Amino acid sequence: MLELSLHILDVLENAVEAGAKRIELNIIEDRVQDTMRIEAKDNGRGMSRELCERVLDPFVTTRTTRRVGLGLPLLAAAARRCEGDLSVESEPGRGARVEATFRRSHLDRAPLGDMASTLLAVLLADPPVDVAYTHQVDGRRFEFDSAQVRAELGEVPLSQAPVRKWIERTVREGEESLRQTRPMERTEKREAEF
Amino acid sequence: MAKIKSIEELKKLREDLERGITARSQTSTRIIIGMGTCGIAAGAREVLQAVMKELDARKIEANVETTSCIGMCAQEPLVDIVQAGKTRVTYGNIKPAMVPRLIEEHLVGGRLVQDWVIARLEPEGIR
Predict the structure, then answer these.
(1) pTM, two decimal places
(2) CATH assignment of A4-180?
(3) Closest approach of chain B CAs to the CA of A193, in angstroms?
């Protein structure tokens, strides 16, 4: 995928298909350690250990339309190409946890991209799914919890145009504020090397 | 501080929109966009955005939904338009730039965009 946010959308859609009502999505970027970690935990139906072990095989899938499931293998490839990896943990009835790690400054590490669009696409699901999203870059943190938004809105659905636009703006501004994190000074970089 | 401002904005949105809800929820038009791995890789997220934007601009009410892969991966992005009593149409290879014409002709004009149709389901059964 061209952006990591598209891989994230894919993983979130998996959670929706697994019957999740709530997904925790955490992105943690550490510029000193030069790592980027993306973690998605859901409370869907989970997977057996047997399926969990096979799930990175592109010919393993739970869907019936084709005998191919490329989502997780593609994400694993993206992570491994950046000196990272993908781990998938799950237990039946206990949801699943997917974690992708990357060396942040790796040349092949795709940009994170448009998280607002990714979150909006998932928040359209019916029955509704909530996403508790946090994105941290060094010491700065942006948090967005759709459950809080729903609580404030009462009966008004998230699909209403003004609400969607509010969500889009809020997430874009939040992401933008993380990009303001000031560039690392040379001395900081040198200390990080030791 | 930003959090408090956000909550204020949401409260205002709630007040403004609560009034309109019952009037709104009766549309039977469904626009379903494939959002499996194949769809996402082919650009379905951008098609979804384009659909929302077009519906907003024309103030058309429709339920926009996503669905998982239906097995026609090479034709993604796929957009289904479902309306009560009418043929269910599956459009394939849809790009964001094609969305305005799709909405204009199919939803507003009531005509299929034949060149882009890849499947149809008549209301009484499969043709």
Answers:
(1) 0.92
(2) 3.30.565.10
(3) 36
At A50 the pLDDT is: 93
Q: Choose among A121, A125, A163: nearest Cβ to B13.
A: A163
Instruction: Note the pLDDT of residue A126.
Output: 82
Tell me the one-letter amino acid at B91: Y
pLDDT of residue B127: 46
Structure confidence at residue A127 as a pLDDT band (50, 70, 90): confident
Q: How far is A55 from chain B (nearest CA, A)?
A: 14
| Contact (CB<8Å) A63/B68 | yes
The whole-angstrom distance between A65's CA and the closest CA on chain B is: 5
- Whether residues B69 and A66 touch (CB distance < 8 A) is answered with yes
B49 lies within 8 A of chain A by CB: yes
Domains within chain B, CATH numbers bracketed: 26-121 (3.40.30.10)
Angle of helix A146-153 versus helix A161-179 axis, rounded to 10: 140
Query: Any residues with CB less than 8 A from the CB of B39 and at least 6 apart, and which?
Result: B33, B69, B76, B77, B78
B124, pLDDT greater than 60: yes
Spans of all domains in chain A: 4-180
Whole-angstrom distance, CA of residue B88 vs CA of residue B68:
17
B14/A70 Cβ within 8 A = no
